[in-house]
Amino acid sequence: MSLKEKQKIVDDWIKQYPEGYWDPMVGIYRLTEEVGELAREVNHEFGPKKKKDSEDENEIGDEIVDIMFVLICLANSLDIDLDEKFEKMMKKYTERDGNRWKKG
Predict the structure, then answer these.
(1) What is the average per-residue pLDDT within 14-43?
(2) What is d(CA 74, CA 80) in angstroms, rounded to the nearest whole number?
(3) CA distance 46 to 39
(4) Which of 7, 60, 74, 76 has its CA 20 to 30 A from that of 83?
(5) Cα–Cα distance for residue pair 37/32, rounded to 1 Å
(6) Can you spell out the DSSP letters for 49-90?
């Protein structure tokens, strides 16, 4: 599924509600919160801070897609085509960093 298709699914879901998209700054606040939750999960799994027995089990993948949802909402609210921007970004990395590391 393309990013454009994901953007459409999110847009259709958001349009059910009169509140609509968050203000871009609220989107950034939400993104910060979700990145913090991802950092916490990574720390629990790979870092020194293990979960307490009373804490819920969350998966790193779940936190990543929460971040994706918030980013798609932000992109939609600003009328940004993520497929177009992703292709541009990959071209930049391919050209700039194509010979940076040894290929396996």
Answers:
(1) 96
(2) 8
(3) 10
(4) 60
(5) 9
(6) -PPPTTSPP--HHHHHHHHHHHHHHHHHHTT--HHHHHHHHH
Let me know how many helices (H) and strands (E) the chain has, helices first: 4, 0
CA distances to 17, 25, 74, 95 from 6, in Å: 18, 22, 13, 27
pTM for this entry: 0.87
Distance (Å, whole) CA 18 – CA 21: 9
**Rounded (10°) angle between helices 3-14 and 82-97:** 150
pLDDT digits (tens, 9 = 90+) for 59-101: 999 999 999 999 999 999 999 999 999 999 999 988 888 778 7
Domain 3-97, CATH among 1.25.40.10, 1.20.1530.20, 1.10.287.1080, 3.30.1480.10: 1.10.287.1080
